[in-house]
Amino acid sequence: MLDRNPRQQFWMNDHMDQAVTQWINSFAGISPMLDRIMIMITQFGVPLLILAIVLQWWSGGASKTHVRHACIVAGLSFLIGLGVNQIILLFVHRIRPYDAGITHLIIDRSADWSFPSDHATATFAIVAAFLLCGLWRRGIAFLVVALLVCLSRIYVGTHYITDILGGAATAIVSAAVINIAYRQDSKLDRWITGLL
Fold it and tell me: Where are the transmembrane segments (predicted)?
């Protein structure tokens, strides 16, 4: 169990966060089938979403270069968002809800701090990138997957809802910065989108 320090005490006073987290987690353990589904979503949701993005590289029809540009923005947002999370984890040491007695865990314990959620950052980076690039149908489809993954992280007992919101915020900011910094039709973009 990770030791508590004064920085962690800030989180312990948020009753709404705890109440919503407990409510979502309260469904865990009631239905073995639902537990298995949520565990599968929490374990395989991010890899399957990454695979979906990789497959987007060869789709798009007439807008192939635009879709490829969105894939690059998604990949960069994903990496930058997770990098920012690692910096946040150096300063914010929030214990996991199962260590605080808020949830009961139905998967293996995590070795790092709770805030922000890497799963939320990874999935919402992809969603934000596609939406910012104007690919609405794909973005909404990815959003459904992202919401399921994030819900599963609370359901299995490993995150608070504010961990999810923090991870999503990191992802959206990262995607916005990359969308501004990495311009479509730049020389670099034309070279990368022309590969394969």
Answer: 37-58, 70-93, 113-133, 140-158, 164-182
